[in-house]
Design goal:
This protein has 91 residues and is α+β, with helices and mostly antiparallel strands. The protein has 3 helices and 4 strands, in the order E-E-H-E-H-E-H.
Length: 91
């Protein structure tokens, strides 16, 4: 199984995985509008991989087979104030 990964020019650390190069036919139009013009990042074989750097490989494979795409978004930014307050409660 191959996938093609595109970077979003509008959203930092946001990637779109599709099955074929430049084939966005199964990606919802609204998603593409918010994503911006996809910029090719890499082509990757998923067959001999157990994991990916920043995405769950099983979720990627499932998204590709069921929806025809997988959207990788960055994790939410954690509030430093909340971290500090939470650590203060442990003391």
């Amino acid at each position: 199984m191959f996938c093609v990964i595109y970077r979003s020019p509008q959203r930092e650390q946001t990637y779109l995985y599709v099955e074929k190069k430049d084939d966005f036919s199964r990606v919802p139009e609204e998603l593409l509008r918010g994503f911006g013009k996809p910029q090719l990042a890499m082509v990757l074989s998923l067959d001999k991989r157990d994991k990916l750097a920043n995405a769950d490989i099983n979720k990627v494979k499932q998204g590709l087979s069921e929806q025809g795409y997988y959207l990788q978004i960055p994790p939410p930014v954690e509030s430093l104030l909340n971290i500090h307050l939470h650590q203060g409660k442990k003391v």
